[in-house]
Amino acid sequence: MARPVILIVLHVSLVLAILTTLVSCEAPPHILFILADDYGWHDIGYHGSVLKTPNLDKLAAEGVKLNNYYVQPICTPTRSQLMTGRYQIHTGLQHGVLLPGSPHCLPTDEVTLAQKLKEVGYSTHLVGKWHLGYYKEACLPTHRGFDSFFGYLNGMEDYYTHIRLNGYDFRQNEEVANYTGQYSTILFSKKAQSVITQHNPDKPLFLYLPLQSVHRPLQVPSHYIDQYRDIIKDENRLTYAAMVTCMDEAIGNVTNTLRNTPMWNNSIIIFSTDNGGLVYGGGNNWPHRGWKNTLWEGGVRGVGFVHSPLLEDDVKGTVNNELIHVSDWFPTLVSVSGGSLNGTKPLDSYNQWRTISKGSQSERKELLHNIDPLTPLPFDPLTPLPGSHIGFDNIFNHSPFNTSIRAALRVGDWKIITGYPGNGSWIPPPESGKTPIYPSEKPGKQVWLFNIKNDPDEKIDLSETEIDKVQELLEKLRGYEKTAVPVQFPPYDPKSDPKLHGGAWGPWE
Questions:
Q1: What's the confidence (pLDDT) of residue 398?
Q2: Is 398 an active-site residue?
Q3: By the 8 A CB rule, do 403 and 395 touch?
Q4: How far apart are CA 148 and CA 205, in angstroms?
Q5: Catalytic-labelled residue, pool 30, 47, 75, 90
Q6: Helix/strand/coil (H, E, C) string of 48-117?
Q7: In 3D, which of 163, 256, 249, 253 has the Cα closest to residue 213?
Q8: Using CA of residue 90, residue 453, residue 317, residue 279, what is the dihedral sign?
Q9: Most Cβ neighbours (<10 Å): which of 223, 262, 342, 477?
Q10: Coil, strand, or helix at residue 328?
């Protein structure tokens, strides 16, 4: 009687071993990461915009919309945290962006997402904007884990001439490439399509597509503008709207190309903005407060979604309200690729794949938006101002954290802001006919507290009534500040002048 039992046990063990082998042999997913530039919260169709984004809307509707998703207020910091999974206070990039001729880059001892994916056999390609430094060759994308690079190095340039200030800025891998006269959004989408069609589907693909769109300058082929002339009268908004629709069409072309390959059924598409829209550049973040380069929700709450056949059926078409940050893509994508996080510096990020693909609770409970000690207050904090007894908030005289420093922190539903957060106006889209709201702040104010769950548009400042919560969060800010590395924001290096390098921006050391 013992023999059948033994046979059953052996049979079950064999089945489990086979299943385990099959799971372990699953092919890593192909990853397409699309990063829009200066794309506002209100500027996508599913947020109620008049801007036409049918391709983005369809992809988002078939996937998971990220409704509590955060990025950084400006370009370089978002890109650095995406590539490293680490807060900018830990890479020295906590102030401003990398400007043309800056003798600095994402520190070369930081391990990038592309490097981690290459470790597990991915082909890695970057098509679009780098903006993580280039003063020496070791800073270039092809030295930071990418097999190929097609795009530009600085933060902005002309869409047609590809000139930034006094230099040309376009490269294929490490060589200057002449694409003068070709509109970058269309150029980048065609290149991305080429990468996809020429890729061997048996090898996992990581295609990083950080588009120039919809960053200034406001430029677009005229036929995209015509469809908006009767709807939008504001000239900046009109051109921006056309740029958004051109970008949407380009993304549709790229994703449809992927759809027509064997890679589609084992793919993950991530769409994200890099920061909030720039109001005076045509973008809009209504109903949120503020815009690009501010610590208000309009600057840091980002449009984002995930589309993938690998998502659980019951999460497709849903809205995810869990707290997720752009840095979380690093451990998330390394994990889904079957890679290891060994060899990185300490991460400030979390694997969110179960949160996104299954609807599980996010492991992230707090989020440091930034601590920037170099951005000054618009007033002297030690000089009394009209209508105030002192130049800073009385109740925070003995704060554990210097509240004149520009900083913001989210813990649970609570968000604290200190220093100068930037313009905090509520600006509706011009075509809405609604009236902008301009806040009236107490002179010398430099601390704000909001419950973001109850007040996502930051209209009710609780800093003077929730004193204990303010002190608690200031203590946390002080704790983060103790871990920060020195800010690296060197001045322009004259040796970088394109006139000294054949008229093009590129490495000079």
A1: 73
A2: no
A3: no
A4: 12
A5: 75
A6: CCCCCCHHHHHHHHHCEEECCEECCCCHHHHHHHHHHCCCHHHCCCCCCCCCCCCCCECCCCCCCHHHHH
A7: 249
A8: negative
A9: 477
A10: helix
Indicate the burial class of 330 (C-beta count within 10 angstroms; 0-12, 13-18, 19 or more): buried
Give the count of alpha carbons within 13 A of 459, CB side only. 8
For 72-109, write each residue's pLDDT tens digit: 999 999 999 999 999 999 999 999 999 999 999 999 99
Amino acid letter for position 111: V
Tell if the pTM clears 0.85, that is, is over it: yes
Q: What is the mean pLDDT of residues 149-156?
A: 98
Provide the 3-class DSSP secondary structure of residue 38.
Answer: coil
Answer yes or no: is pLDDT of 244 > 80.
yes
- Residue for token digits 């993938």? 308
Residues 388, 486: Cα–Cα separation, whole Å: 33
Contact predicate 459/415, CB 8 Å: no
Determine which one of 95, 131, 199, 307 is catalytic: 131
Please give the average per-residue pLDDT across 352-364, as a whole number. 97
Q: How confident is the model at residue 8 (pLDDT cuts 50, 70, 90)?
A: very low
What residues have CB less than 8 Å from 243, skipping those under 6 apart?
185, 213, 214, 218, 219, 220, 224, 282
Quick check: is 47 catalytic? no
